[in-house]
Specification:
about 425 residues; alpha+beta; Molybdopterin biosynthesis moea protein, domain 2; Molybdopterin biosynthesis moeA protein, domain 3; six-stranded mixed beta sheet; about 30% strand; elongated
Length: about 425
């Protein structure tokens, strides 16, 4: 028997003799391989919140559709009143109000009362702010010089008719619905919601509603992943919990492939005796088992089951959460028609000390302190779920041996 290697006391150390895929390489492989897999439908905008546009949207009407006043005041021709003044100007009878425009003529050297949002009458080009005038029932007085076009919103200054309003792949927010309504768009073509199934595996795992034996643990991954999916804007599908039984797992995956467009499993994604997810995917010939050079995480089984993409996540809750956030979230966006998008990160000062080892990327549970610095959770253990609850994001530390010290710039990824 040969001697074992020296003890490292590091469960995250990368064993030699294997290719450990860098995070960016794995992400790029996903980006180039994934395309939308969902259908489309047409919905009224009142039912389209959170849906992903399947086609570009152009303005059916200019916004604003007509020149209108930005203030309460008086409309005049600037050219009628050159110089500094003071000027006294007669008022024409009537006014222009929002929804009740002034339709009469305004003779040269006259003004008309106008209210905020009202159409600017023909023949005038400038609005005097009410506070800049003195007025009675028949005339106003003001000082010049006047600035032509002052206090007027031009027709189409936001969007002209036919202009691009929202691009294909945009996920509709409340403010987007306001824009669509303003430009005369009452319905939109959107992708059907991406359905993501979540399946937990393991003899040791039981539902939190059931009694647990001393050798069993409650299933933390499934409620977490289902909630993550909902928070991302996709449709979660609960596929339940299956034991370490290959036939039972295959049957549940068959069911999941009918109910979901994408499946996340937790546990069984590595190459051990009871890693049935990777074994079943290997049987189909579709397994892409990545040993990711990252902490937490590492085993990520990717494949197809009955044409449905499977993401086999690690079993430890922290690793499952991080791998879902880093890999499954942008993949789901691509599959949903939203397009490949990574979450935006922000450079902030470190409020911690960390010695980085070579060869792996690390994601630390973190939150920002009152000074805007990133604090990290005291433990890096993958089973410390309290650290996920404590954190508001992750600190992303790229590969490379170095010492991170307080004040050093680090990248913070908010949840």
């Amino acid at each position: 028997m040969s001697l074992p290697p020296p003890l490292k006391n590091d469960c995250f150390a990368l064993p030699p003799g294997h290719h450990w895929t860098p995070v960016d390489e794995a992400l790029e492989a996903l980006r180039t391989a994934l395309t939308p897999i969902v259908g489309t439908e047409t919905l009224p905008i009142f039912r389209a919140l959170g849906r992903v546009l399947a086609a570009d949207v152009t303005a059916q009407r200019a916004n604003p559709p007509y020149a209108n006043s930005a203030v309460d005041g008086y409309a005049v021709r600037a050219a009628d009143w050159p110089g500094a003044g003071p000027f006294t100007v007669p008022l024409v009878p009537g006014r222009s109000a929002a929804g009740a425009p002034f339709l009469g003529d305004i003779p040269p050297g006259h003004a008309v009362r106008i209210l905020t949002g009202a159409m600017v009458p023909a023949g005038v080009d400038t609005v005097l702010l009410q506070e800049d005038t003195s007025a009675n029932a028949t005339e106003i007085a003001f000082h010049g010089p006047l600035k032509p076009g002052a206090n007027i919103r031009k027709a189409g200054e936001d969007l002209t008719k036919g202009a691009s309003a929202l691009p294909k792949g945009a996920r509709l927010r409340p403010q987007d619905l306001a824009l669509l309504a303003a430009i005369g768009v009452s319905q939109v073509t959107v992708h059907t919601p991406l359905r993501i199934g979540v399946l937990s595996t393991g003899d040791e795992v039981v539902n939190a509603s059931d009694p647990a034996q001393p050798h069993q643990i409650y299933d933390a991954n499934r409620p977490m992943l289902l909630a993550q999916i909902a928070a991302w804007g996709f449709q979660p599908v609960d596929l339940g919990l299956v034991p370490d039984n290959r036939a039972a797992l295959a049957a549940r995956l068959n069911q999941g492939a009918q109910q979901a467009d994408m499946i996340l499993t937790s546990g069984g994604a590595s190459a051990g005796d009871e890693d049935h997810v990777s074994a079943l995917l290997d049987q189909t010939g579709s397994l892409n088992l990545w040993r990711i050079a990252m902490k937490p995480g590492r085993p990520l089984a990717l494949g197809l089951w009955e044409g449905t993409p499977i993401f086999g996540l690690p079993g430890n809750p922290v690793a499952a959460f991080v791998c879902a956030h880093i890999f499954a979230k942008p993949a789901a966006r691509a599959l949903s028609g939203e397009g490949w998008q990574l979450d935006q990160g922000f450079t902030v000062p470190a409020a911690f000390t960390k010695k980085m080892k070579a060869g792996r990327r690390e994601y630390l549970r973190a939150r920002l302190n009152a000074d805007g610095g990133a604090e990290v959770f005291a433990s890096e253990g993958s089973g410390r779920i309290s650290g996920l609850s404590w954190a508001t994001g992750l600190v992303d530390l790229p590969e490379g041996e170095r010492l991170v010290q307080p004040g050093d710039p680090v990248r913070f990824l908010p949840f």
